[in-house]
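Would you mind writing out the residues of a protein together with its fold in token form for me to study?
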Amino acid sequence: MSSHEHHGMKPLDGLAPYCSRSNYSEHQREDRFGRMFGDLPPAYTRPDILQEIGRDNGPMDGGNKNSPTKTVPVGMVFFGQFIDHDITLDASTSFSSVISDAGEVSNVRTPTLDLDCIYGLGPEAQPYLFSQEAPFNGVKLLTGDDNRLDNGDLVQGKYADHDLLRSPNMRAVIGDPRNDENRILSQMQLAIIRFHNHVADTLYHDSKNNPDEETLEGHDLYEEARKQTTWHYQWAVVNDFLTAMCGTPVVERILGCGRQFYCASTPFIPVEFSVAAYRFGHSMIPMSLQTRKGTGKLELFGEFLGRGFDRVSHARAVVDWHELFETSEGRTVEKTQTLDTKLAGDLLKLPFVEAGGEASLATRNLLRGNAFLLPGGEKVAKAIGVDQSDIDTVIGKVAEIHPGLGSDGIPLWLYLLAEAEVIGRAESNGTFTKGEALGPVGATIVAEVMIGILELDDRSFLGANRNWAPREEWDDIGKIMTITNPTLPAV
């Protein structure tokens, strides 16, 4: 067995374009969740064991976790949350529901990376999201900087030019209200809105200054600016986010050889992805981080970063993206926490919980896996061809967490965290880095779903023009986030 085969997949032979099982899930609907491994039986773990595993001061409690990765910038975990809000929203199920038919669970978001959280329903259906000033009426998106009185004063206060557009009750006027739930996320929403506006500016002036072209204006300018913004974002998802979280070899294998397990004629979100695999970031979230150069760290759930659904009221709440992503400025960027079976202690005693609700994020995830009838992690690993020796290594790690977890029916989310801890991310030199990001099973699920929803979307760059490449000045997430960074307020 070669080093490239160890910790990985058995060779995939004779794959058809895009996917080797092209007729799988042919009746799947875009507005419903579904299953990726529908032929595997569901696992079950007693809820008292799950509550024991996930409780405050339990075996998954990492306390003041401080074990950074070597390569993953801290901004990536928040970018992952932004991506999640772009493709999924389950507003109908609870921990107590048994979800036997995932195809009956509504997904309120479109399961495509189309930035509908930015554009909403577009300028015709939601004109209040867009500027009405020539020559960009119906093209540029509004921000807090546009919310001014007749005398020019900022309606939302002195930091409104670093904020989203807000209504009189200070709720953000955006395509998805969840993107205002914490300050990092709302500043990311603002940065991508600014990027769209910058793209619109660039396209308009490029066409206006080219005597061989008609000037792009109105609807045509909006559509081209939206396409270019969305494709650059999608490019960053594949080439920055997925390579960081799943490993470059996994991404290149799927793009080069096709998908083997996420197979459908219509894009959809599998529950193995939404309920288990894509919750990996909960282990990587730091509880404090530096968002401005030369200042101390801020608590994630503290006054400046944790306060959502309200205006920016302090300079410390304005994020400098050069501090969270690697950019041309070459700053030393803080990294995410390692991906393992530990979560920061604060995540096991969340402060914003309804009376009688579950305060532990770990317990929530585990109970949800039971409710959605997810298959056991070791069963999924066998189905995708992981070596038994590697499965046994993961099983051994899980057994350390709780004696009630045997070799059968391991909760999928927990299996993937343990796999990341003891095997880790595939590297281009054939090695694996423990704790750096997802292992073979988690990486396969996440990368196949992300690439799959792009390939099944005839509006995406992978579905419409596979020879497309980004403009050099916008070709990674650091540039997208920082290219329009205004002068930051003094702190």
